[in-house]
Amino acid sequence: MKTSRLNSRIAVCVAVLTTTAVIRASADQPATAVRPEKSYTGTVESVDPQEHTLNAKSFVFDRKFNLGAVCTYTLLDNSSGTAGDLRPGEKVAINYRDVDGVLVADSIVQQPMCYEGMVQAIDPAAHTLTLHVHGIDKKFKIANDCGVVLRDEKSGTFADIQTGNHITVTYETPEGGPVARQIAQTSIEFTGTLTAIDLEEKTLKARALFASMKFNVADNCAIVINGKSDGQLSDLKPNDKLVFSYDEVNGVNVVSRIAPAEVQANSVATTPASAPMTGYLP
Q1: Cα angle: 172, vertex 173, 179; to 5 degrees
Q2: Domains of the chain, each with CATH number or no CATH
Q3: Which 3 state secondary structure label does DSSP give 173?
Q4: pLDDT tens track of the chain, all 282 residues?
Q5: Are 142 and 177 in contact (CB under 8 A)?
Q6: Rounded to whole angstroms, how far apart are CA atoms 130 and 117?
Q7: For the chain, where are the alpha helices, taking DSSP H only?
Q8: In the beta sheet, which residues pair with residue 47?
Q9: What is the sign, positive or negative, of the torsion defined by CA atoms of 255, 259, 262, 264?
Q10: CA angle 126, 129, 132 (to 5 degrees)
């Protein structure tokens, strides 16, 4: 009799402990398993902030993303943004989770697309810019709101961009073709009188009132003669007063453009600072 009662009590205790363990194990399990994050880099095809969706394409495949309620957006200047700050043609890096085929974006970071080269031609009236690098010309459309940044992050205008300048273009591809959104021109200018030319070594020396400079001539240096940028070093003469556009690289002055000082302002087509570029791109 006592043995029967003891066995009954043991069975009850085991049942209670088993039930408690099951309850605790269930409580420790999350409602849904956390999906690992994945990454995708591509170009925005379309974005709908109202429907919280974004379509992007890459070289391999296109993807449609649902924008999460707490999705974060980082713009090119590292500031925080919203889905409304994204536009077709921009390159973005997307961190997302794949939930049974539904792609949920957790963060989107704008990525710059840049092209560096020498200005072959710029036509503000036609809204085009052509860069030359390694024997290849690349033509850009210019957006109406395209900004110009000079050395030391100073704001500039299209009058500051001239043939022969070495520049960096940040661009997008809204309709497949490159559209310039920002132009950075970081060259330094020196105005002085030419004192020496070494055609074999491709070096020049010039002096101003309180300074003298030595320049190494870049292979694709634009030399402006009679308004055209196809001049030769042999066309330059001692005592010519010239404007040298150059970049200082570890103490070496590499000149990429040389023009007569008196025609500097008229060597290329320019747009007055107060004249906006209208009628081409939004």
Answers
A1: 60
A2: 37-111 (2.40.50.320), 113-185 (2.40.50.320), 189-266 (2.40.50.320)
A3: coil
A4: 444 554 555 444 444 444 444 445 444 544 455 678 999 999 999 999 999 999 999 988 899 999 999 999 999 989 999 999 999 999 999 999 999 999 999 999 999 999 998 888 888 889 999 998 888 899 999 998 999 999 888 999 888 888 888 899 999 999 878 999 999 998 899 999 999 999 999 999 999 988 899 999 998 888 988 878 889 999 999 999 999 999 889 999 999 899 999 754 434 333 333 333 333 333
A5: no
A6: 9
A7: 2-28
A8: 54
A9: negative
A10: 145
Return the DSSP state at 39.
Answer: E
Instruction: Break the chain down into helix, strand, coil percent, rounded to 5.
Output: 15, 50, 30
Q: At 152, phi and psi to the nearest 5?
A: 65, 30
**H or E element in which residue 127 lies:** none
